[in-house]
Amino acid sequence: VKALEPGTYHVHTQLNTEHIGPGLARGQTVNVSGDPILKPIPMGSIVYQCILIGAGLGVTFATRPWQVI
Predict the structure, then answer these.
(1) Which SS3 state, helix, strand or coil, does residue 33 take?
(2) Are 39 and 52 within 8 A, CB to CB?
(3) Is the pLDDT score of 69 beyond 70?
(4) How far apart are CA 38 and CA 43, in angstroms?
(5) d(CA 30, CA 12)
(6) What integer pLDDT is reported at residue 51 of this predicted model?
(7) What percent of the chain clears pLDDT 90, i.e. is strictly above it?
(8) Which of 24, 35, 50, 55 has its CA 20 to 30 A from that of 44?
(9) CA–CA dist 47, 44 (Å, integer)
(10) Region of 21 on the Ramachandran plot (φ > 0 left; ψ -120 to 50 alpha; else beta)
(11) CA dist 28 to 2, 8, 25, 39, 68, Å?
């Protein structure tokens, strides 16, 4: 198992079956050790996600303001 940072994780094996969908097997707890994996995040991805979140909030507030407040 590889993780972005060391720690204790609960993981499941997933089996995808055609025409049925995904199924999860029994889970198990694993301990991951080692140095954290540092991955740079491109600025374009951050800006794109902010635009999508802002647009979603704008639509939600415009159509259902009583649920946002």
Answers:
(1) coil
(2) no
(3) no
(4) 15
(5) 10
(6) 96
(7) 32
(8) 35
(9) 5
(10) left
(11) 15, 10, 9, 27, 38
